[in-house]
Each structure stands twice: as structure tokens, then as C-alpha cells.
Amino acid sequence: MMEETRTRTAQGLTTLPTETVHAIVNPVAGSGRPARAWPAVRRRLESLGLRVEEVHTTEPGAGIALARQLVERGARELLVIGGDGTVNEVVNGCVDAQGQPIGPVTITIVPCGTGRDFPRLFGIVRPEQAVDLLRYGQRCRVDIGAIRFRACDGSSRQRYFVNMADIGLGAETAAWVSQSTKQLGGFLAYLVGAMRTILRHRPAELTIEIEGTTVFRGPALMVALANGRFHAGGMRIAPMASVTDGKLEVFALRHVSRFALLGSLLPAVYRGTHLGHPAVEHWTARRVAVRSVEPVRIETDGEVVGTTDIEAWVAPKALSLRVPRGACDGSA
Ligand SMILES: Nc1ncnc2c1ncn2[C@@H]1O[C@H](COP(=O)(O)OP(=O)(O)OP(=O)(O)O)[C@@H](O)[C@H]1O
């Protein structure tokens, strides 16, 4: 038994944690889904003998400081009860400015958000899965993206993203979804948001540099920087993306008519068949810069954080995540 435990630990396979599990709950994620789903999961964990302590986020951004305080006080197991925005905040609290974890902490996601694109990569789609993740899951180190951008007050800021950062059309959609239609549920909320944004959005003059070389200059509707494969409630925007390859997939959408966007590109991106369309450019990069003549909105993991210009890069293996066995590369 001891031998088995040693082997499982060496492979990153875990048994029930012996230390206290600290739950960070965003009560407003997924239009209040945590209140419906989390209490039963907590009761089940406690019935298995786990000690669970719970804190709630009280405002946007609060998850960063909560996670940082918990890890600095010695927390080793964090449960994140919320959506991708909450996971984003917790990860930003757990990683320092150099892309290093501030402590030996592992994050387990209890998916309760609207889009839930990040946990979907690992096949984590139901809140109840947290119980099996803690019992039989596997600890994996995965990449996160880092982005330097212009904040609303004009200062230069750095932030991490776990799944996707995007400039232009996607950020406008995220801004609208976060203020209006979340109760529709992930897929529908983002579909309605994307259609509405497409009808209003104008292209911007952008320059894209990959590893210091200019690869694109001209009008574009959107640039997406993908660590994970899914976006906006299930769009298969980056079918080739891997969270363990140390790289970002970069997409630019050239200026095309609204008719082409709504009629062919939007349906294609849900199927992952948009690559090869003449309006879609794609590069793989360790470092990317996007500059614009006028400021263009950006979002990270579904929340608008600022505007261009941006620089982005990968913080390899900066996040320790508990996932189902065999799902480390996020291709579930
Ligand atoms: N108490 C709170 N009141 C208001 N907003 C909050 C509170 N706590 C956290 N937030 C904010 O709620 C926002 C949405 O959270 P989150 O992204 O986790 O859910 P979601 O948008 O429903 O899911 P997804 O990102 O998966 O689509 C985040 O920007 C977060 O900063």
C-alpha cells in the first residue's frame, strides 16, 4: 500500500488531501450557480473526512487577494467555485510577477460559471466532479499566458490568463455578456453576444509581431491569444492548442463583411473549421505583441481588463491543477 502511494504520488496521482481544503466561492458566478451546486459538494467532501474552509469573493477582483493571503498563510489545496473569471483571479493571486508559483499550492476547479471553457479542456464539466478529482485526480503543471496591457487609468499592467486573451470583437462580446445575458447559460449567452457585437463592431488598424518580427499590419476585427482550445462558451477557436507546450496559438481575423461573419465564420468557429478561411491568420508563438493606432479593448478569461497595446508570453507550467487521470494535456 505504501509502495502504491509512493508510486501514485511520483506520477502526480493523488489521494485525498490530508490538509485543509480552502474553498474560494464566487457567489455571483454563473448567475448564482454556486449557491445551488456547492453546498452538496461541500457536504460530500466533509463526509469523506476532509476539512473544508470557505471564503466568498465580495467584489470583482477580490479573488486575487483572497488566494494570495491563503497561500501566504500556508494553504496547499484551493477549490475554486466559480467560472473562468474566478479561476483567473485565483491564479493571479497564486503566481508572482516572474511567472513562478508563490507557494506549493494545487487548484481544483468546481465549475459553476457561465462559459466554463477552461475546465472543459480537462473534461471537468460538473461541480460534483470535484469529489472524484480530490480522491482520484492527478496533479498536473500547466502553462498560463501572461499579458502586459494598458489599464483603464492609462498605466501599464501585467496579468495572467489561463485560457484565452482577446482583442477587439471577442472583448466587446465579453463586455456585453458580463453585463447582460448570463442567465441564458454559456452557449446561448455568448452566441447572442457575438451576433449583437458583430452587427456593431468596426475593424481597427493593428500590427502584430511574433517573436519580434512583424507578421501582420492592417485592419482586423479581432486577435485571439489561446492557451486553451475553447472560447466563449464552447467555440472551438484553437483546436490545436495545448496547455503544456509552452506556446500560445495566435489568431487574427481580417476585416470581412458582417454577412460573411454571421453566415459562415461564426458557425465555422463553433465547429473548429474556420482555419483555412482566407480571413483567418494563425501563428504559434512564445511571445507576441499587438499594437494599434487607437486603443482597442482586451479581455482575459472573459473579463475586460484594459486596452492595447499589448505584449503577451507564456509562463510555462506555472499552475498546478488537479484534473482527471490522463487529462494533463487538456485534450479531453
Ligand atoms: N461578490 C461579487 N460581486 C460581484 N462580482 C463579483 C463578486 N465576486 C466576484 N465577482 C466577479 O464576477 C465575475 C464573473 O465571475 P466568473 O467569470 O467566475 O463567472 P462567469 O462569468 O459566470 O463564468 P465564465 O467566466 O466561465 O463565463 C468576475 O469578474 C469576478 O471578478
From TrEMBL:
Single Gene Ontology MF annotation: kinase activity
Top-rank taxon, per record: Bacteria
Matches recorded under PROSITE patterns: DAGK
Signal peptide: none
Cofactor requirement: Mg(2+)
Family matches, as InterPro entries: ATP-NAD_kinase_N, Diacylglycerol/lipid_kinase, Diacylglycerol_kinase_cat_dom, Lipid_Phosphate_FormReg, NAD/diacylglycerol_kinase_sf, YegS/DAGK_C
GO cellular component, as recorded: plasma membrane
Keyword Nucleotide-binding tagged: yes
Domain DAGKc: 16-151
Gene Ontology terms: biological process: phospholipid biosynthetic process
Keywords: ATP-binding, Kinase, Lipid biosynthesis, Lipid metabolism, Magnesium, Metal-binding, Nucleotide-binding, Phospholipid biosynthesis, Phospholipid metabolism, Transferase
Pfam families: DAGK_cat (PF00781), YegS_C (PF19279)
Keyword Lipid metabolism listed: yes
Entries under NCBIfam families matching the protein: YegS/Rv2252/BmrU family lipid kinase (TIGR00147)
PANTHER family: LIPID KINASE YEGS (PTHR12358:SF106), SPHINGOSINE KINASE (PTHR12358)
Protein name: DAGKc domain-containing protein
Protein species of origin: Thermomicrobium roseum (strain ATCC 27502 / DSM 5159 / P-2)
Lineage: Bacteria, Pseudomonadati, Thermomicrobiota, Thermomicrobia, Thermomicrobiales
